[in-house]
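We modelled the chain as a single entity of 115 amino acids. Its sequence is:
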Amino acid sequence: MNDFLLIFRRDESVDLQMTPEQLTAINKPWQDWMGSLAAQNKLADSGNRLHPDGRVVKPGAIVTDGPYVEVKEAIGGYIVVRAASFDEAAELSKGCPILDTNGTVEVRQILPMAH
């Protein structure tokens, strides 16, 4: 089995347009989906949501606001799943609730660091 990072992206302005009730309502599908992954023993790390603000450190010790100030799409969070292949990890991603709000899931295999 391999670990895969699932990165959730969408237009961050979507959250700004939702009422508190709508934000609460979208939590249930996330809980159901992640609970299903955990029940299948596929959830390796439940991940976290990410604050929309950030900084980018560049060569020469330059720090800029970011990470992508000119792009509307932002990384909203991530989880780590355990799967036998990229295909299986992508299949697990198809149930992600972010897809219902025109978001995307980026699937990346995690490679262990050489010691």
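As a brief sanity check on the tokenised model: The CA atoms of residues 94 and 105 lie 8 Å apart. DSSP finds three helices and six strands in the chain.
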